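Thread: Modeling a multi-component assembly for a lab meeting

Hi all, long-time lurker, first post. My supervisor asked me to bring a structural picture of a complex we are working on to next week's group meeting, and I have zero experience with this. I have the sequence lines for every component (617 residues in total). Could someone generate the structure of the whole assembly? Inputs are pasted exactly as I received them:
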Amino acid sequence: MDTAKVVGKPAFASFIERQAEEVSVVAPVARAAGEFSYGEVQDASSLEEEEYIPTLSSPKKYLLPPQEALFRFSSPADSAVHEGEELEYTADVEQKRRILLAVRPCDIAAIHRMDQVFSDTEPDPHYLARRRAAIIIGLDCLEPCDELAFCAAVGTSDADEGFDLLLTDLGEDWLVRVGTDQGAELLEECQEIRDATEQDLQRLKDVVQAKEKVFRKCQERLDFPGEDIPEVLEGSEDSPVWDEYGDRCLGCGRCNLVCPTCFCFDVEDTVSLDLKEGERTRRWDGCTLLEFAAVAGGENFRRERSDRLRHMFLHKGKYGPERYGDLYCIGCGRCARTCLAGIDHPEVYNALMRHRDKGDDHG
Amino acid sequence: MKPRVGIFSLSSCEGCQLQILNMEEELLDLVQAIDLVSFREAMDPISGEYDIALVEGAVTRESEIPVLQEIRRKADVLVAMGACAAAAGVIGLRNLRSPEENLRRVYGEHPDVADDVTVARPLDEVVEVDYYIRSCPIDRDEFLHLIKSLLMGKEPYDPNYPVCVECRIDENVCLYDLNDGEFCQGPVTRAGCGALCPGFGSACMGCRGLVDDANVESMIDIMVEAGIDEREARRRLELFHAGPEGKKNDNGED
Ligand code: SF4
Ligand code: SF4
Ligand code: SF4
Ligand code: SF4
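Re: Modeling a multi-component assembly
Sure thing. I ran the full set together rather than chain by chain. Output:
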């Protein structure tokens, strides 16, 4: 196992406070109605939050902001940008050092998936620059956050990688697992920290073992093992389940927008009123929205809400695993928490499974 | 050559024209980019010829029909500006009762003072409309976006996704989670406003009109579950786009 350290909670809190004076530290902050959002913090109190549920937006927003300028363009001559002259391009890539604090195991798994996507084929300079400048200090969950989470069913309730540091609550102390050199280096600035002893590691083991029992209900939200999701989706294209849920679905995109692994965006060029300069921006998009699959000429490949909803499930549960080997749903339950039509992903998977068993998908 | 632009008004509060006048910072750049030939709120008309017509207001009188048709005939591009022009807007509410009943209620003994009143109609029920600027009143940035797009010969972008998209991006706590009696129409209303009302804690009232594939029945279920009765939920959904269609719900009650 990676190296482990132990530090008293007050000492770790002062370490975070000192960091916050130097760099941006972001962590879940309580909002109205029991909700949380990631925001700038000055201290480590987020680590002690007992009523935590996954944040409205995931920490993804610090790596892929909802809207960002990709580059600017200007016309060197006295012509307008659309008149065919050679344009000049400039781009700013943001590299602000930032500590993402109290990132839960599900969101750590989500960031890992985003890394896969944005390093694939055309590596994305904006995402990767932000990612390189980010330090992830994870926080292990010792119990499920609420009844909508199903991380344990899709294997993301424990984090083994994807963090720089990972904290586990040992009562008075934090046990700190070090995942990267960057994490180790950062810890050098933390005072009163010591190597974990055999005894500490035994305590960690006990805590991790206890998790299994506490997370059983969370795991059982799915009637079958999470790794079978691709297989359950295989051949489900014509399942009546999609129409049933599609009737209720508002096609509102909320589930996509809150999802920590949705990475789709739309691009738009905007120009100044004299038409001599402008910028290209991208902003989050979502496949449950009507115009997501619309193309030039007016064709729309997924006009029906049920088709769009199905696409979201297929991407999370089938296309993602086929391409990258990982489920692209990490079980945070954000989609169900935000969905006004009460569409809950494990419930849909279970319904697909039941229909498949009845054999009514294949005539 | 700069395009000649005319700004016209049918039945409305003229608040959309005011929004244009209020663009103090951009107004000078704007008149560099286009030739304003008609703009009642600001000047006497310079010319009766124009390339682009921006029309605010709904059609509510017979006499407005030929006026609008004439504008359509002259303009290469006709833009419906604001909720009244795009969807009949608040004026469309009168369609919930018959024209005769409305006249009786407003003018009592003298209903003949407005003798050519019809149902309220958005422009595209009378003439072909090329583009829309939505909202009550219009947003200045969207107005500028439309002008710039037309100058470049590009389709202006008109969001067809719901307000919830912008509201989730802003990470507002959803009004349905706050549960304090706001029956937000954000899930079925066109975005583009930056979720202005929900951002200030007030329900979206739908001033930008419905998204193209709005699941109205599901929206009603959600509003009813949040504690409003079904009839009231339907009425609220019609506030800004009752159009002539709204008439079918006429039941003579208040
Ligand atoms: S599943 Fe729910 S959140 Fe997603 S688009 Fe449909 S109604 Fe909106
Ligand atoms: S689920 Fe839809 S919006 Fe999300 S990443 Fe996949 S295609 Fe994109
Ligand atoms: S699909 Fe839902 S549960 Fe899965 S990662 Fe996205 S928001 Fe979380
Ligand atoms: S407050 Fe309204 S606009 Fe915002 S997410 Fe909720 S329903 Fe949508």
